[in-house]
Specification:
- Keywords: ANK repeat, Signal.
- InterPro entries: Ankyrin_rpt, Ankyrin_rpt-contain_sf.
- It holds the Pfam family Ank_2.
- The protein is built from twelve helices and no strands.
- The N and C termini lie far apart (about 120 Å).
- It is mainly α.
- It folds into two domains: about 40-125, Ankyrin repeat-containing domain (Serine Threonine Protein Phosphatase 5, Tetratricopeptide repeat, Alpha Horseshoe); about 130-225, Ankyrin repeat-containing domain (Serine Threonine Protein Phosphatase 5, Tetratricopeptide repeat, Alpha Horseshoe).
- α10 runs parallel beside α12 (about 210-235).
- It has helices at about 10-40, 45-55, 70-75, 80-85, 105-110, 115-120, 135-140, 145-150, 165-170, 175-185, 200-205, 210-235.
- The longest helix has about 35 residues, at about 10-40.
């Protein structure tokens, strides 16, 4: 009688090797196909991505570096692909990259008004906690986007984790028209961040002459109006 053994037979080893090679090949093919998808997103190849979505591509798929496809599309201004992904059922419009940025934030930074409107229409969160789309629009002086966000009830003095407001970011970049727009819409120039710095002090620190000029006049006017108003009410 042959003794039982726990050692694998040669046939079993060969079978296991074939299975393993098949799995590795599949994994490699998946990686290659994902790289191709990311490339198509970056180049706004709507024909390819449209076909992929129709064939069941998950709109929340992450690139090898962890970036959501929709975020990549927004960053690269691939508007056709971004629109296709954003209108796909079950898409997560709030999905962020490793830097904490979502599609609406990057579309706002780029001044991509059409995509901003589309994302908002599809339910993207306008007043995101922490760094918000309005911060991003103000950072690059994207007035048209600022108007769209404010028209959709974005909180004008929204504070970042360290208390920075959109007005401070606009002042930092010396975006005069954005500073004026935010002030005209009710932004408070006297708000301070966690370090006790106002928008005017931001402008001075970053040597932003136009913002300094505007904020100096508007801040003084607000500060000086209180005593005058008090005097009127006392009469």
């Amino acid at each position: 009688m042959t003794k039982p053994t726990n050692h694998p037979t040669k046939r079993a080893l060969v079978a296991a090797a074939l299975i393993a090679s098949g799995l590795f090949a599949a994994a490699g093919a998946h990686a290659e196909s994902l790289d191709a998808i990311v490339k198509a997103v970056k180049f706004d190849d709507i024909a390819d991505i449209g076909k992929q979505l129709k064939n069941g591509l998950d709109p929340n798929t992450l690139a090898p570096n962890g970036d959501p496809l929709l975020v990549i599309a927004a960053r690269e201004k691939s508007d056709k692909v971004a629109a296709a992904i954003a209108t796909t059922p079950n898409v997560d419009l709030e999905k962020e990259d490793k830097a904490g940025e979502n599609a609406l934030m990057l579309a706002s930074l780029n001044g991509d008004v059409g995509l901003v409107k589309l994302l908002i229409d599809k339910g993207a969160e306008v007043s995101k906690k922490g760094w918000a789309p309005l911060h991003y629009a103000a950072t690059n002086g994207q007035d048209a986007v600022v108007k769209v966000l404010l028209d959709h009830d974005a909180y004008i003095d929204t504070a970042s984790p360290n208390g920075t407001t959109p007005l401070m970011m606009a002042a930092r970049g010396n975006h005069a028209s954005t500073v004026t727009l935010l002030l005209d819409q009710g932004a408070d120039p006297q708000v301070k961040n966690q370090l006790g710095i106002t928008a005017l002090e931001f402008a001075k620190h970053y040597k932003a002459p136009d913002a300094i000029d505007i904020l100096s006049k508007r801040t003084v006017r607000i500060g000086a109006s209180a005593p005058a108003d008090a005097q009127k009410s006392a009469k």
